[in-house]
What we know:
mainly alpha; 4 domains; 29 helices; 60% helix; 1% strand; elongated; disordered C terminus; SecEffector_AnkRepeat; Ankyrin repeat-containing domain; Ankyrin_rpt-contain_sf
Amino acid sequence: MLTAVRLVLHLQPAIEVLEQTINAISWFLGPPQSLPFHEACKFGSIELLDWMWSASCTRAGDRTPGWFLSNSLRSDPHYHKWQFSRSLKVAADRGDLPMMKWLFAHFSGCEAPSSVADEAQKKGYLLVLLFLWRHKTEDQGTNAHAVMQTSCSVRYGPRDVFWTVATIEKACENGQLAQCLDEGMQFSEPDAEIAIKHALRVGNLALAERLVPAGQSIFDYAAGCTRIEVIEMMVEIEYLQRDIRLAASMIPTVARSGRLDLVECIVQLACSGSEENENWVATWINAMEMGCRHGHLAVLQWLAGHPSGREALERARNDDDINCLLPAAAKGGYVEVMEFLYSQGLAIQYCRAMKAAIKKGRASSAKWLLDHHSFDESELRKLWVKAMYTSVGKGYLELLELFNELDASTPYAQSGVKRRRAGQTKSWWHYVKKSDVHRRQRGPSQHPRVVSSQPRA
Length: 457
């Protein structure tokens, strides 16, 4: 019944004693009789479900005149079963365990497909999944059919998965995995390992500690962890001294953070075993790329100046492994990093760097590249067209202005920043429009369509 109705009638003692009066008023004010039960479940109100359930007749002969869904909820077995599946899916999608228990307590003789758990799997609702699994259809036994007549269940196929890696990871984040542990639930060793590693990745050390088997440390699962606080703890307890390879693998991670003090500490640990690690050159270059990508100039300078860094760079030059450095800096718009790479002879792959700068709208990077490299004419024309389309499509005004000043037919380095001549009549709109016509003739391309006309005077 509506609480509001009871409160109002409380002021009228003579009417309040008549239960049928309360029922009549509540039903008059209540939801429409054509409201599907599963739609009502979306409100998350058990009181509303009780209300609709009590207003639904149990026999066909008791139905009210007219066509109403409330007439069929409990009296039509087919509609009854269909509504159970739909309502159970809504409750599972919401992670509403009390509502699911309510549905199993009130419906009877219904079987839902395992697909009702799909959304719950994606959201990491372990308690919901466990509840559904405990109510799976039992095919064994002579009384299985009789049980189905009085209870409800969920049918799982032989290939249906209880939960996935993503489910466990989500459960670490939404608190349901911790709640399962509070209730005494035991996880298999593979599931526990997945949960520990993800808990470390999201910085939930307390949860990771609860899952670690006796005699082991959470840091035994820390390989690949990118949380700086976890790495700091591993340094403090001298865990990394036991595993030089693990220490070396963490150099790119700490370089990405910009923590020069931590970089120095990890490198000091890792370099003692660098000659034994065949991947240490790639690891070092990867760390330098992280410094370029995130604009950590101090970290980059230290890595490049370290004896191991100089040796790694010498080896990397021979294999062209330093191709990633300049594009990474250009993509982020870190001109000071690009200047450092240029001064150290590490600036290569100018065309690739220009494409990265154009893609992200980094006008400062593009200008630096034009000032420091002589692009050939055909290469420059392609970059010019790419810059125009990207600038117009994504609203990169500074990049648009930079390339609008550039004469697409003349290499930038040979002519400098060539301003548009006063007698020149063709604007960049002409080239974009012409290129768009050419694109339509050839068919669709990856560039956004630009339809424009000559700006009015």
